[in-house]
Amino acid sequence: MNFASDNIVGASPQVLDAIAAANTGALPSYGGDAITKRVEARFAEIFERDCAVFLVTTGTAANALAISALTPPYAACMTHEESHAIDDECGAPEFFGGGCKLVGVPGVGAKLSAEAIRTCIANEPGGVNHPPLRSLSLSQATECGMIHTLDEIRSIAETAHGHGMAVHMDGARFANALVSLGCTPAEMTWKAGVDCLSFGGTKNGCLMAEAVVFFDLQWAKDFIYRRKRAGQTVSKGRLISAQFDAYFAQDHWLYLARHANAMARALSDGLAALPGFRRAWPTQANEAFIILPGKVASALRSAGAMFHEWTDKSLPAGEAVADNEVLIRLVTSFQTTSEMIEAFLAIARSTSIQAK
Amino acid sequence: MNFASDNIVGASPQVLDAIAAANTGALPSYGGDAITKRVEARFAEIFERDCAVFLVTTGTAANALAISALTPPYAACMTHEESHAIDDECGAPEFFGGGCKLVGVPGVGAKLSAEAIRTCIANEPGGVNHPPLRSLSLSQATECGMIHTLDEIRSIAETAHGHGMAVHMDGARFANALVSLGCTPAEMTWKAGVDCLSFGGTKNGCLMAEAVVFFDLQWAKDFIYRRKRAGQTVSKGRLISAQFDAYFAQDHWLYLARHANAMARALSDGLAALPGFRRAWPTQANEAFIILPGKVASALRSAGAMFHEWTDKSLPAGEAVADNEVLIRLVTSFQTTSEMIEAFLAIARSTSIQAK
Amino acid sequence: MNFASDNIVGASPQVLDAIAAANTGALPSYGGDAITKRVEARFAEIFERDCAVFLVTTGTAANALAISALTPPYAACMTHEESHAIDDECGAPEFFGGGCKLVGVPGVGAKLSAEAIRTCIANEPGGVNHPPLRSLSLSQATECGMIHTLDEIRSIAETAHGHGMAVHMDGARFANALVSLGCTPAEMTWKAGVDCLSFGGTKNGCLMAEAVVFFDLQWAKDFIYRRKRAGQTVSKGRLISAQFDAYFAQDHWLYLARHANAMARALSDGLAALPGFRRAWPTQANEAFIILPGKVASALRSAGAMFHEWTDKSLPAGEAVADNEVLIRLVTSFQTTSEMIEAFLAIARSTSIQAK
Amino acid sequence: MNFASDNIVGASPQVLDAIAAANTGALPSYGGDAITKRVEARFAEIFERDCAVFLVTTGTAANALAISALTPPYAACMTHEESHAIDDECGAPEFFGGGCKLVGVPGVGAKLSAEAIRTCIANEPGGVNHPPLRSLSLSQATECGMIHTLDEIRSIAETAHGHGMAVHMDGARFANALVSLGCTPAEMTWKAGVDCLSFGGTKNGCLMAEAVVFFDLQWAKDFIYRRKRAGQTVSKGRLISAQFDAYFAQDHWLYLARHANAMARALSDGLAALPGFRRAWPTQANEAFIILPGKVASALRSAGAMFHEWTDKSLPAGEAVADNEVLIRLVTSFQTTSEMIEAFLAIARSTSIQAK
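Above: the input entities. Below: the structure tokens describing the complete assembly.
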């Protein structure tokens, strides 16, 4: 009953097999191999347009490199005040960006909105004392497991572009968001105005496979140098490209994401039905955020369940975590089974009754 | 007959199997797993002392992170003028080091020497116009496939320490150097005065496994933050630790390195015996550097052999590459076979005779 | 009636004369001259202890250099969320600090407090995802013209030190704060726990004279290199040292500050007595922050008065700026005269009556 | 007899008077004042075209800011291996440039040449391991007191532009070079292909006045932010602009430079005529580089003369400093008098005879 994160499991069997299959023989290093080239072409197919693809090793590196390409060192990148970039990467965007600033804006469920962006811009004093806003980063899904609709992304991107900001999407859970919306990758990105995407594979069935994808190719200029000097140009590049190769084959990635999302929904629905339990935010991807009695949470932990407590900073207006309650995050993955869900729900149910 | 590099092959079967074996089950992420902990303990055993070990993804990241820990941003790191750090990492040390400088010194076969260090220091004008020298990075083996003896390392480290410089060793080919010297890992590092080591696994049988090892623990303070913000804290850390686990088991790493070195020696000896061929530098690890007639090199290429031409900058005094000659680098790996060597030598022999 | 800032005027006659007097003859450059050495010694006298003094050209450079010396690039500096460092220096601390983060905490009147610091620390999630807090910067006087008492500084510094943070004081208006408290420079700094001070002269009668002063000499190590590579090592250093020379002579600096403070108090008292006017924060140094009817503010502007509107972010609980009101900042300087104050008050009075 | 540098003297009387004259009254700060605007307009007149002018405090800041605007952080700037930027600024260009690299090329008298640039480019291995060359910085006059002719500048700039490099000129001694060539400022800069200029006033009669001038306005975009976050936006901007105001009035700057150059020539001619003395490089601006017997140099020092020994790295082919000789630099300034020259020559003459 480990719901601590979606990075606690290994790779899907298909992805693992692909690593093994790619292991034999001599191949050009540093991404010059045929598998990498095939994968780059696959990205173009999947996104229905020419795009520049750069494989990297971690999500933090993907975000920080992407933001550094969109944001001059003297400028600022706007993002949600709880985004991974601003709050969980130990200053990687500032480091890769040469000292650029991240400007946090509020929003329920860690979602950005055109309105919040406009308010932030209106409050900018202007003048030379503040770094100019040059980019925006939205997370899809968000840190609270929520999804921006296509309309919302469009409206965010339009507002950003209208103020001279390039648009980055942190897609660490891109697949989970995609199948949740039921749209195409193109629709969720460049067709809605996204210039650059951190495309995550690791949380959804790969062992370590991330990519920075540029739809607006002007931003991709010289990115190979940025990646190299960041120590992200992998010598035996096949390790990453082989994973993506299997990830995309026969829509494996969509299958994995659908499964994880379904598990999260089942868990969320089961818990929300219990007395004293409620959702902090709607469960839209592979994470359930639940407010529950503190005693029950402790009992679940005692019974071996693993999960993280979460911040209540972006709760909807009117919602609050009472003193005897806690807000927890439960993350499902491609490996989560109905049995795990059931086991967790069973304990929740019984301790919930006892706790009364 | 691909001798272009030792990163053109995949992982050894043992290493690959370990990745697969580590794939199942839920494990703490970000290096909190038992495999990582076991591997960290193995490093301590192998180096016969407490040391701080940080797994990372690439050799460039290992070097740049290590140098950034040893060198304040306003200071300089001395290294050979042809070292990988100064010449092949696209400015990664300067980037990770916040704009620190690398100062290159000359030396035959890309080797450093106490004398060259002293000369460089003596030529420093002093004063505030020059970044102070605070670290030194030597490569073992060097970019020219040579090995610093234990006496040489000791003398280099002593000189460096005497001038307030911390000592880093770039061990991208650590294992090849180690079995060449026939000493212990401790003897080649901290017992000789090395404070920090980039320990490479990728070139010697791993798919992607590097580590920064601090023997002087003061330098390791806060290094977890440096690694995180560099995008080098791998979420599914087992991917890297499992490789090292197998790498170290039953001296697998030493076996692989001995094989690669033996192959290089066989290749080097075979070639050096041919008329018009000679070694640019002695073959001490898994790379042979050969000066040969340009025509023969072309013929070898036409026959499908792959290798890189190399710079003659660090040739011994009196040695030179004539106009009709080229200097080439031939790298062997744990996968190189006697058959490959023989095939290459056969073509070299026959084209050599024709070329007369 | 220009109350826009204290940097709109030139230098005091004494300071100007000192520049002229220092102009003749050949002197060693880059701070090696006798005037600079004399001034450095004066700092030690004034602060009653050995200290390391580094003259620089701007307050932004002083703050950013000081913070970079106290804060490793992977770490964070805590400061008030409206401090000059976080809000008015276009990212200079992040730039000089190699990408370090600034963490803003709230507080009435832009003041820090031990409690706010403890709350911020308590909310830190810990772990490697957040840069560790390694320094704290408090402004004396604050951006809202308030003064931390000696007890408050002591308590802030103690709390900071207790959590491993070095303490920096932004003293752009150091003299105004000092004469307001009526204490000694030593009492307001190192005796209260301050490790490093940005000592400002420009706003209080110099043309351009700032200094970074280290009381804890360990932080001063290598600072000469930081200053040089920041382009802050002035070749004709006498330009700055001569100003400080005159600034300190016969307590000229204290005289200037007392005058500016008295002018601010007179202005503040005069305005606060008017109907519909009130102080946003107490007037403790050389800045008056007044909430007044918007119409009156407009009338004052029409009459030629110059001042800035200010943010209401750090108002005391219960205080607010109504829709028909504005919050303005009025800054006095050593050159402000009673006549200017009277002229401003006269218009305020008459427009205030008309506005009714 | 202080010939140590041209920054050992103060300002010319005219420049000093201008500082005093500008001191009175309230003026907008941060460069918004009328003097600064007038000076910016003067630059446009002097350079016969629209240009973007940014006043800064030091030559190091001017160079480092300019190079950072022309060179992405992952790229390299080519310059002479003895240029001030690479050798005397403690890594400022690397710091301001976010870790960019400086690539040094050789050349007699610290001059660049199209040929040296082409050789350097031809030796670049290409590929992602080396930062791409994106800018070039030439010094006019050079560190050895030499002047690039207009043809040479044109040819250097053409070669640089042809390889995608923007062209920066370090004009710390711009005026001395200009009057030496007898051309217009436009001819020596943008008409010859220079994109950006560090325009120095400090060494030629100002106390502290430097400017970054962009002729290609695309590079000036956002430069105000770079300057601000570098701590180079002076609050009482009149201090610098007033100096330039007087500097340009009635060709004062050209007068000062002509004087300094004439003094250097007189000194150089007088010394070169002495037995055992010879010029290391031709005296083309305000610096004489003389090779002389070591004993004579010591005697001069004993007699109170001040000067620096210089490196022989860029001597013309065939020239060398013998064991009993030294190479010294003698710098003249606007304040140097014929009496000082005569006094120096007299001692040189007499000690020279004694030394035989």
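Note for the figure: Chain B touches chain C through 18 residues (CB under 8 Å).
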